[in-house]
Structures are given as structure tokens and as C-alpha cells.
């Protein structure tokens, strides 16, 4: 270990890993400091990567040159495409990841990465002067750097809560991070208290699976990374199982509500709205007779089954009653009891759009201490903080993804513009342009950026360019090639219930028909041998053609709003004394200091009339 580095990354979770790799792979000397390297990349809660909206984030990370998708594909248990009954804008992959092998893969990679040193220890303080940061203190040792990225996850001053018992501790039995919260407060950084939790782990051999509904994977030719070429056949994928809570479950929970840490007054942090504890579900949705739960295997190497949807802060003896009231779990052996965890996070309105703390140049923030929930959101913030720390060191413009470019861009804009009072979860409903930011086309959207910042190799970029060009050539070919009454494609269309074609119908128009797939249609077309695509590439082509009209409409709408994003706002505008602004708008604009008119328009409490005042102000000052 050296005395000074270009970048120090604090925390070895999903955010910290992507951040330190982004820095090291660009050639910056980087130090990763974590409490326990054996827990780097750990999945302390659900053993999965991806899911609704989250699967799209993973593909975006992959397209930028990150590692989450590669690690998840390396040895998953099951791969599933979600929302297949809905449109392509919300479809995404979810990998049942191996809790043991996933972090081991990442630890091996970190250990062999150039420009990266690893130190086990607890950061207790930030070294700084009146205007910028200069490193960290680990115990009594000062380690200097030009930039610091904090990615401490749920460890800062964290408490474990179960029933009326509360003790200091980190996730998965690890120690908490102590001292750093106080250091940040002394720097006049505002902290918030958040809560999350995790359910029980059950011994597989103690479950009666005859009372469950089996849930199989449905994908065997795609992965979360575009680089993955080796896939597990569906027949060899490990199943999950579905069960439901019972009236007895609900009765037990209601009778013991006051024994829960949450309802017994022990919890002070705000929990995630979209991933509530089971007791919260029973109270908030009292009209529902049952709630679905999933039994998910955690690893090839253990007998542990994750009880998805049954997170709770009840005492252990009540958890025994709750678990044993579930179908198939009447005699279940609990390997690990559920718990809630409270921790310190930072108010995200203190960051700019590069994830740097506005008051402290050189201090970047990533992961769950930004106020988010989930491995995927954390990793997305991590790679962005890593890229932007590098840009800051090189005196380059920040890398900012727009809301029509990536879900990661939506997330960062939401956090810094609106803030959060609870763990933020990225949902497809948060994105205005879902059809532009699909799971299938993340590489077409973002690989250019990954290559620009030297996180995508020239070899990978060349493969991407060939795929992109092939998709465009095939799109042109499909529009040029016309089919008619004598075409053999009518045999295929007859299978789907269609009448024979009239003469002069383009292949693209045929592909737009319901049920028609490119993988079948190409059999009836004269496709040059050099224009072949992987199943993933064929999916991109098919969606581009089928939804061409809708995609163009969303692009036009996005381009109109982009004009507002190009209207810059100076950082020294005196909003508090600007005539015509509502009082709430003055306060919010002064606190957040938006960079553009577009960002200002998305701040809660800033109305269209306030935006009109801002535009008038800019025109008067001849800035618009």
C-alpha cells in the first residue's frame, strides 16, 4: 500500500466494486478500503441480480464497461425474462445468482486488477481543508488521495433490530462502520436514517415441496452481459417455488404486532415503500387474504433457501410460529432469522449530477448511502461515481446520462432533484421514455460512452460496431424486400391464422404482425450469410421494426424536452429574492441549485408558472 492515491473508494459492496474498477481500469491509482474483503460483492439480502427495471440497469452497467452482469452470468442458478406478457419497454432479465460464487468471482477479479490496491480497515474520518478533501483516516493512519468515493452501503452506524432487541451490527453478521457519520456531520453534510431488512433462510431438506408451485427459468440463450456466450439450458437450471401466506399467518402477525421492532417503537429509520416487511403488508393491505412468497435457492454449495417476501423484525420465537404457518414449511428448520437494519445515508439533494458533494469538491458518493435500495441501483451509481471521479481528476466535463438515455440517468436525476425520505427503488414507471430505454438495446445506447471512457476494449467495441451495423443493414433489407401471394412465407402466416399476402408487402410490414418473429421470418428471406445475429441481436432488430412508429413518437417527445436540458442555469442565481417565484419554489431552487431549466422543472414544489419566471429572467439577462 502506498501513502497516496488518485482515488480512494470506501466500501466493497456492489457500488464500491464498480467504482474502483472504473477508476483503476482508466489508469488511476486506486485504493479500495473495506471492512472484510471476504465479504466484497456479498449479497446480504436476496440472492438475485436483475428483475423489473433492475435488469435493465445491469445491462446498462455492462454496456458502460461494468462487471455486475458478467459476474451474474458466470454461474447463475436460473435465468428468467420477466413481464413477457407486457410490452418490450418493461421486459427484463432476472438471474437467480449464486450467493457464494458470485462474490468469489468478483473478489478474484479485484485481486488481479492493475492499478488497484486493497486494504481491510475501517475509515473513521475524511481528511479535508476548508474547500476540498484530501484522503481518509483508517484507525490512526492517514492515507492521501485526490478524490474519495464513499460507498459504505448499509454499514454506517448500523443497528440490527429483531423484536425489542437492538444492537450495533452490519448486514450478514458483519461489524458496522463507526465514526464516519460523525466526520460527515462535522463537514456540514446532512445525514438521514433509513431502514431495510431481510427474511429468513430455510434448510432445503426441511421443506415439503409437494405443497408448493414450481417456478422454472425461461431463458437459455441470453445473459445480463452482452459478452456472455455460455448459457445454462433450462432443463439444467435450478427451480424456485411459489407459496402463499395463510389466514393463520395473518392471525399470528396481528396478535404479535407490538412485539415487532417496527410496530413496537424500536425503528426510527424509514423503510422501503416497495419492499415492505410482511407485518407492514398485513397492516397496509388488510383486505388481501394472502400474499405470495417465493422459495429461492441461494447457492449450489449450500442447502439454504431464501424466503422471498417474508422480511420481518419480529422476535425469533414469533418468527418460528410465522414460518411454520406457511404451506410446506410446517416443519421447516430456520438457518437464519430475519432482521431489520437501520443505517445512516446522505440526503442526495446535496450531490450534483456527477454524484459529487456540492460543498466538497473531490468527494463522491455511490450506492445505498445515496438513499437507494438494491444491488443494481448501487452498482449503477458506483460506475457513474467512478467515471466522474476520473473525469474530475482529468478536469473533464462530468459524465451525465439524460433521462431518455438510461435508467441510471433517471435514477440520478430523481435523487438529486427530488431527494428521498425512504430507500429509493428504480421502477419502470419512473421512466418517461421506457420504449427508448429497453433491456434489449442498452448496448446501442451506452457502449459508445463505455468505449470513450476506456472501459470497453477496442476488441469489444469492434464486435459492437459490427452488430450495430448488421442490425441497420437488416432493417434496410426488411423494408426493401417485398413479398406476395406466391411467397412461401404464407405457409408460416397460415400457421398464425393470417390470410395470404397481397403482392408488394414489405418484409418489415410482415414482421410487425402479431406473433411473427424474426427468427422464423428469416427462413423465408434471402439473408446474406454475413448478416447473422445472436438471439439477443435478433431481439433488438425485431423490436426496432415492430415498434418503429411508437419509438419515433417517443424520440420526438424526448427531443423537445431535451431543449430544456440545454438551457443552463448559473450557480449564483439569487432565487430567494427573484420576483414572481412562489415561496416554496424559491426555497427548493436555492437548496438544490439545478443545472438546467429541465432539472428545475422536475423539482417537487416548482410549478410551470415558476419555470416561466425563470425563462423570463434568462431572456431579460440575454442568456436565452
Describe the structure.
It is built from 20 helices and 22 strands. It has 624 residues and is an alpha+beta fold. The strands form five sheets. Strands 1, 2, 6, 7, 8, 9 and 20 form a seven-stranded mixed β-sheet that branches. A six-stranded antiparallel β-sheet has the order 14-15-16-17-13-18, with no helix packed on it. α1 (14-25) runs parallel beside α9, α11 packs antiparallel against α12 (458-480) and α12 packs across α16. Helices cover 34% and strands 17% of the residues.
Short account of what is shown:
The chain has 624 residues and is of the alpha+beta class. The strands form five sheets. Strands 1, 2, 6, 7, 8, 9 and 20 form a seven-stranded mixed β-sheet that branches.
Features of this protein?
624 residues; alpha+beta; seven-stranded mixed β-sheet; six-stranded antiparallel β-sheet; 22 strands; globular
Ranges where pLDDT stays below 50 over 5 or more residues in a row are none
Q: What is the beta-strand fraction?
A: 15-25%
Please summarize the sheet with the most strands.
7 strands, mixed
What gap, in angstroms, lies between the N and C termini?
51 Å
Shape, please?
A: globular
Strand element count = 22
Structural class: alpha+beta
Radius of gyration: 26 Å
**Mean pLDDT reading:** 94
Fraction in helix: 25-40%
Number of helices: 20
Amino acid at each position: 500500500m502506498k501513502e497516496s492515491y488518485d482515488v480512494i473508494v470506501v466500501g466493497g459492496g456492489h457500488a464500491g466494486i464498480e467504482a474502483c474498477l472504473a477508476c483503476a481500469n482508466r489508469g488511476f491509482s486506486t485504493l479500495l478500503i473495506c471492512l472484510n474483503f471476504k465479504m466484497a460483492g456479498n449479497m446480504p439480502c436476496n440472492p438475485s441480480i436483475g428483475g423489473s427495471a433492475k435488469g435493465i440497469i445491469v445491462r446498462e452497467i455492462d454496456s458502460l464497461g461494468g462487471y455486475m452482469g458478467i459476474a451474474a452470468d458466470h454461474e447463475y442458478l436460473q435465468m428468467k425474462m420477466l413481464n413477457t406478457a407486457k410490452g418490450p419497454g418493461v421486459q427484463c432479465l432476472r438471474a437467480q445468482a449464486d450467493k457464494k460464487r458470485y462474490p468469489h468471482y468478483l473478489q478474484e477479479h479485484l485481486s488481479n486488477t492493475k492499478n488497484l490496491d486493497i486494504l481491510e480497515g475501517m475509515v473513521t474520518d475524511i481528511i479535508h481543508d476548508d474547500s476540498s478533501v484530501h484522503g481518509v483516516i483508517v484507525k490512526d493512519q492517514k492515507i492521501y488521495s485526490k478524490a474519495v468515493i464513499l460507498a459504505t452501503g448499509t454499514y454506517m452506524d448500523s443497528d440490527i433490530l429483531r423484536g425489542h432487541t437492538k444492537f450495533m451490527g452490519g448486514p450478514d453478521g458483519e461489524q458496522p462502520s463507526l465514526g464516519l457519520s460523525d466526520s460527515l456531520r462535522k463537514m456540514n453534510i446532512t445525514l438521514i436514517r433509513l431502514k431495510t431488512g431481510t427474511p429468513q433462510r430455510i434448510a432445503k431438506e426441511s421443506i415439503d415441496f409437494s405443497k408448493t408451485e414450481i417456478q422454472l427459468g425461461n431463458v437459455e440463450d441470453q445473459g445480463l452481459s452482452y459478452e456472455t456466450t455460455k448459457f445454462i439450458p433450462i432443463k439444467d437450471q435450478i427451480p424456485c417455488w411459489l407459496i402463499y401466506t395463510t389466514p393463520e399467518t395473518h392471525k399470528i402477525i396481528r396478535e404479535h404486532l407490538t412485539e415487532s421492532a417496527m410496530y413496537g417503537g424500536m425503528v426510527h429509520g424509514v423503510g422501503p415503500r416497495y419492499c415492505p416487511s410482511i407485518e407492514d403488508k398485513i397492516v397496509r393491505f388488510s383486505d388481501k387474504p394472502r400474499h405470495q412468497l417465493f422459495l429461492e435457492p441461494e447457492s449450489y454449495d449450500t442447502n439454504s433457501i431464501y424466503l422471498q417476501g417474508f422480511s420481518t423484525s419480529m422476535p425469533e420465537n414469533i418468527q418460528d410460529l410465522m414460518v411454520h404457518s406457511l404451506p410446506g414449511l410446517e416443519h421447516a428448520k430456520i438457518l437464519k432469522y430475519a432482521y431489520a437494519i437501520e443505517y445512516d445515508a446522505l440526503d442526495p439533494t446535496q450531490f450534483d449530477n456527477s454524484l459529487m458533494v456540492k460543498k466538497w469538491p473531490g468527494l463522491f458518493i455511490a450506492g445505498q448511502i445515496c438513499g437507494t435500495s438494491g444491488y443494481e441501483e448501487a452498482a449503477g451509481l458506483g460506475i457513474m461515481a467512478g467515471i466522474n471521479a476520473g473525469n474530475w481528476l482529468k478536469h473533464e466535463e462530468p459524465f451525465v446520462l439524460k433521462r431518455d438515455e438510461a435508467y441510471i440517468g433517471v435514477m440520478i436525476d430523481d435523487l438529486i432533484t427530488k431527494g428521498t425520505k425512504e430507500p429509493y427503488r428504480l421502477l419502470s414507471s419512473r421512466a418517461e421514455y421506457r420504449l427508448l430505454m429497453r433491456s434489449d438495446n442498452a448496448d446501442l445506447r451506452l457502449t459508445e460512452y463505455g468505449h470513450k471512457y476506456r472501459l470497453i476494449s477496442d476488441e469489444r467495441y469492434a464486435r459492437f460496431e459490427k452488430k450495430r451495423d448488421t442490425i441497420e443493414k437488416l432493417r434496410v433489407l426488411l423494408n426493401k424486400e417485398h413479398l406476395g401471394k406466391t411467397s412461401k412465407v404464407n405457409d408460416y402466416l397460415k400457421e398464425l391464422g393470417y390470410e395470404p399476402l397481397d403482392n408488394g408487402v414489405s418484409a418489415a410490414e410482415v414482421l410487425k404482425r402479431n406473433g411473427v418473429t424474426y427468427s422464423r421470418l428469416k427462413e423465408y428471406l434471402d439473408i446474406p450469410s454475413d448478416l447473422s445475429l445472436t438471439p439477443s441481436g435478433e431481439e433488438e432488430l425485431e423490436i426496432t421494426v415492430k415498434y418503429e412508429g411508437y419509438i419515433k413518437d417517443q424520440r420526438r417527445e424526448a427531443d423537445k424536452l431535451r431543449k430544456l436540458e440545454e438551457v443552463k442555469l448559473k450557480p449564483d442565481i439569487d432565487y430567494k429574492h427573484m420576483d414572481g417565484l412562489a415561496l416554496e419554489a424559491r426555497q427548493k431552487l436555492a437548496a438544490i441549485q439545478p443545472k438546467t431549466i429541465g432539472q428545475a422543472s422536475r423539482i417537487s414544489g416548482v410549478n410551470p408558472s415558476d419555470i416561466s419566471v425563470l425563462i423570463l429572467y434568462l431572456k431579460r439577462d440575454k442568456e436565452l
